[in-house]
Amino acid sequence: MKIIIDAMGGDNAPEEIVKGAVKAKRELGVDIVLVGRKEDVEACLKNESCSDIPVVDAREVVAMDDNPVCIVRDKKKKSESSMAVALNMLKDGEGDAVVSAGSTGALVTGATFIVQRIKGIRRPALSPVLPAGEHGVMLIDCGANDTCTAEYLLQFAYMGSFYAKKMMGCENPRIGLLNIGTEDTKGGELRQETFALLKKAHEEGKINFVGNAEGTGVFSGNYDVIVSDGFTGNVLLKTTEGVIKYIMTQLKGVFFKNVKNKLAAAVLKKDLGIMKKSMDVNEVGGTALLGISKPVIKAHGSSNAACIFAAVRQAKAFVECNIIKDIEENIDNMKVGKI
Amino acid sequence: MKIIIDAMGGDNAPEEIVKGAVKAKRELGVDIVLVGRKEDVEACLKNESCSDIPVVDAREVVAMDDNPVCIVRDKKKKSESSMAVALNMLKDGEGDAVVSAGSTGALVTGATFIVQRIKGIRRPALSPVLPAGEHGVMLIDCGANDTCTAEYLLQFAYMGSFYAKKMMGCENPRIGLLNIGTEDTKGGELRQETFALLKKAHEEGKINFVGNAEGTGVFSGNYDVIVSDGFTGNVLLKTTEGVIKYIMTQLKGVFFKNVKNKLAAAVLKKDLGIMKKSMDVNEVGGTALLGISKPVIKAHGSSNAACIFAAVRQAKAFVECNIIKDIEENIDNMKVGKI
Q: Which residues 228-257 of B have a C-beta within 8 angstroms of A?
C-alpha cells in the first residue's frame, strides 16, 4: 500500500509532515511518497536520516488563506501545487490514499473535482471523530457543505454508518440527527424531511437510526454517528474546541491560585494530562473526506509529526476496510426521488 | 413594580417557584403576583410563612411536552393555563413583567400572540447570556426561530446590543456573527447577506460589528453578543452544556481515581465549586425574550428557588432599563427593504 502525503500542507510543513511520514513508513509498514518542493522535503528527510521515501516535486503551495477554488481554477496551483499534484497522483492510481494538512476548503474542492465523488453521492462530507463513549462519535458533515438537502443528510448517515462499523468498531452504529430537541417532530422542514428518510431506512433495516440528538447528547455516549448540515456541524465542532479551551483556562486559574492549590494540582498533573489528551481531536488522526471515490484524509492544519503519523495510520485502515466499496454497493438506497 | 410569576411552570413547580418568589419579594423590593392552582400555590406560600403575595387562580398547566401552539389554540389552555393567564395579565397592564419556567415553545408562542411583538420586529429571540470574558456573552437567537432571514439577524444584533449595553454593562457591545470562519466572505447566502447588513450598520455608527465569529471564539471574551439563527444557536448552547458535563465527568474520574488523587482533589474542592458555578447558565437568571412588547423572562425548566430569584432580579432590571423603548425608538434602522 502506498500513501501519498502533501508535504507542504499545514502550519508546520514540511518539517513535521516529513517527520510524521518517516515514522509512519518505519512503524506501519506502508510505502510513502511525499509531494512538495523537492529540495526542502529532501533536506527534512536527510535530517531524519531517511533515504527510502521518494519525493515528487511540486513547486507551488496552496496557502491557508487562498481561495479554495484556486486548486481547480488558478493555472499554477491547479497544475503545480503539492495538494493538486498529490490528488492527481491518487486519481491516476499512483497511490492508495492522500493525506494533507493543508487548507480544508481547497482539499474538499480538489478531491471533489480531481479525484471526484463516488457515483451517486451528491456531496462529500468532512467527518471527524470526537471523544465520547467507548468508540468516540462521528460528526458528519462538519464543514464541507454550508447548505444541505435531506438527501445529502441521508447519504451522510449511510456513509457514517459504514465508517463507524468498520473503523470505529461499532457493531450496529447508532445514528442521531442533530436537532433542537429529541422529539420526533422537532426542527424545520429540512430536519423533518430528513427524519422521515432516516426513519424509513431504519424500518427497512438498512441503518440504525435512534432519533434526534441535541447538542447536550452528542457527548453522552448514546450515539456513534451524528448527522448534520456542514454549517451547524462546523459550529458544533468549533464550539466544542472553544469550551474545552475555556474550561482548561478556568482550571489553570484554580490550580495556580495559591501554593496549596499548586501542590494539589501537581499530584493530579499526570492524570489530567491523560484526560486532556483523550479529549484532543487530533489524537484520532485526521478527518476522512467521505463520499470521494478514493481515500482522502484531512489532517488538522496545526498537525505535528504525531498527528501526521495518526492520519497515515487512519488512511491505511481506511484503505484496508474498503468503505468506499460499501458505499458504492449501497448507493441505490441513498437516492431520493421526489418525496 | 409588579412581577407576574407563572407558579406552575417548570420541573419543580410550584414549590421552588413559590420559594424563589418569596425570596424575591423580601429581598428585591418588588411586588409579586403568582398565577396557578390557588390551593396548591397558597399551601406553598403558607410553608414559607408568606401572606403578602396574592395568587391569581388558573386551573390548567401547559405541560413540557404539550404542543407549543396549545397556548393559543387549545380552548382550555388558552384561557385557563397559568402561563396564558400570566401573559394576558401582562398584556392588560396588571403587572410589569412575566417570569415563567414553563415550556419554552409555549412561552415564545404565547408571548408572540398574546403580548405581541414590538411593532416592526419580525421575530422574538431567545437570548441567554453565557459565561465568557468580563461580562459574559449573549447568544441571540438560541431557539425561537429555526429558520431566519438576514433581516431577523440584523434585528437580533440591534436588540442584543441594547441589552448588552444596559444589562451587561458593555459600553460599546462587540457584535459577532456566528459563522464557519472569521474571514468576511465565509458562509452561505444568509451569512453573507447578514454580514453586509451588519457592516453597513457598523459603518453608520449604529452598532459595533466586529465581524464573523467561530464556535471557538464564542468563549474567547472577544465578543459581547453573538448573532445566530435559532437552530444553530440552540445547538451551540446545548453543545456547550454537553461539553461542560462531559469534562466534569472526566474530571471526576481523575479525582476519584485513587486515594492520592482524592486527597489532592479535596484541597481544590471549594475553588472548583466556584469555577463550576461560574459556568452555570442558570446563575445569570433567565433568558430574555427580546422583541416582545413587554418584558418576558424564561427561566430554565429545571429552575430551583435560586434560579427563580435570579430571573425575577433580571426581570426587575429589564423593566428599569427600559430596553423595549430603545428598540422601539430605533426600529427604523432595523428594517430592510429589498437589498
A: 230-232, 234-247, 250-251, 253-255, 257
